[in-house]
Amino acid sequence: MKEDHVFAKRRNLLQPSKKQGCTATICVSHIVRFPDFKITENTEWRRTANSKLLRNSLSSNLDNVQGVVEYHVRFPNKEDHCNHPTEGQVAFLPEPVEPRVVEKIAELTRCGVRSVSEMIQHVNSFVRNELLLTGEDENRRRFFPTAQDIRNAMTKAKLENRSSKNDQENLKTILEQWEKTEPEDKVYYREASHTEEGERKDFLFCYQAKWQQRLLNRYGNDLCLLDATYRTVKYALPLFFLCVRTNVNYAVVGTFMTEHENEGSIYEAIEVFKSWNPLWKPNNFLTDYCLAEINALERAFAGRFIILYEIVKEMLGSTTDRHVVIALSLYITL
User: Fold this and answer.
1) pLDDT of residue 16
2) Taking a C-beta distance cutoff of 8 angstroms, is the pair 10, 18 a contact?
3) CA distances from residue 288 to 214, 228, 305 in whole angstroms, order as listed
4) 3-state DSSP helix/strand/coil percent for the chain, to nearest 5?
């Protein structure tokens, strides 16, 4: 199982061929010669006798039998090729992907398809059911692009929807759209920048929808959960979820993203949610066994806290399973 932030190098497997029904072939023969058993006369008796002698030597004393490995290759003539150009620069150009297939990939990308393997299935279905090319060769790159071709087309489609190559500028544009469509949602956004005095301001993003605010005020005064979800996905920035237990199940009631996973950044984000929800005063808080999260919560919710994670850890023994350790830190306000 791969760890977080470990990426395997992808191999770029090019299209096997752009030739359509070409009769030209390359023949390769693998031959092993045994010079010590060469016949002097090409007769059936000599061939049979030496073959028997060779088989006996291979079965009885293989190390003393010397063989020479040879590969014989036969290339086709130019006249053997058909259905594709063989001269000029066009003969060395790969066949481009059909524009209708590229547009379909862009459409599906805008609809939310992110997996290349899933996109391949959609493209195959589109070619056969909508373009009605049921008899087309699957090795033809024009209608059946490679995984790398599809990945490039998906990346291009995603970049076309961005207003800038800077992620912070794109996020700012999205937030402006949210303010128009969902004016009652709570959003706090601060870009990573430097002040004129040279002071560094770290990136901070907090979000809480109207329905999330209602659930936090209703259920958040009993037990809240701070979950560092980013540890289970391949993202560099720390991503945190605030969760509460409702009458149905656990629900996310707030999201924030910081530039660093330290006490100051987490504390600042919690203070933002406190300003949005003045009546939010949780009696219990559950979090990972992380001192940065623990200290930030202690600062944000002033008072006496009993830290029970050491007691739970002693009860569990020396386990290092994260799914068990995740429940080690429990704060109870006295």
Assistant:
1) 47
2) no
3) 25, 8, 16
4) 40, 20, 40
Distances (CA, A) of 106 to 15, 119, 157: 21, 10, 5
Which of 181-190, 219-228, 299-308, 313-322 comes out lowest in average pLDDT? 313-322
Distance CA 106, CA 112 (A): 10
- HSE-CB at 40 with a 13 A cutoff on CA atoms is 0
Q: In this structure, are residues 24 and 86 in contact, taking their beta carbons and an 8 Å threshold? A: no
Neighbours of 282 (CB within 10 A): 21
Q: For residue range 304-315, list pLDDT tens digits in order.
A: 454 444 444 555
CA pair distance 254, 251, nearest whole angstrom: 9
Tokens of 306: 């009993």
- CA 263 – CA 64 distance, rounded (Å): 74
- CA distance from start to end of the chain: 43
β pairing state of 223-227 and 284-287: parallel
Q: Residue 262 corresponds to which tokens in the numbers above?
A: 């330290």
Residue 121 CA to residue 140 CA, distance in Å, equals: 16
Mean pLDDT, all residues of the chain: 78
**Residue 15 near residue 77, CB atoms below 8 Å:** no
How far out from the chain centre does Cα 325 lie? Answer: 27
Token reading at 2:
């791969």
Please enumerate in sequence order all residues whose Cβ is within 8 A of that of 213, keeping only pairs 6 or more positions apart, or say none.
186, 253, 276, 277
The one-letter amino acid at 319: T
Check whether 4 has a pLDDT greater than 50. no
pLDDT 10s digits, 78-96: 888 887 777 766 665 677 8
Rounded CA separation 161/100 (Å): 19
Q: Which two tokens stand for residue 16?
A: 């096997």
